[in-house]
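Troubleshooting: if your tokenizer reports a length mismatch, compare your output against this known-good record of 147 residues.
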Amino acid sequence: MIPLLVVLTPFLLIILFVAVKMKHYLDEYIPRRVIVRHEGDGTVLFVETKKKNIRITVKDFRRAQPNEVLEVRVNGLAFGRYRLGEYRGAYGYVESYAISNSGLLIEDADGKRYYLAFDNIHEAVDAMMDDNKKEKVIEVRRFHHSK
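Known-good structure output:
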């Protein structure tokens, strides 16, 4: 019994390490809520995840597909529709909060780029374009299979 435990321990530790790293990326990069706020002449996005809140002072944004923005994963996690973490691509380095295949490439006032993608991203676009609303809170919806 002891030799089996000695043989399996490294494998179990590796599996545990991978699970902890995956949980870290999921908690840090999956958006739960996005707040669009118009302040003065500009627009500010607040992206809330389980572990952090990101403030993005929007300089420019455009709709983009993940395959045109996120080419090489530098530090993060990717599976299915999820592309989380830091990527490099045609637009340089991009911090990605993508849980869907349609999203926004956002450049902030400091020149940093973000890719934000979730199923109801159109609500964020509508709120950013509508200067009449001071603030809109968007609960991020995830894709659900209906069949």
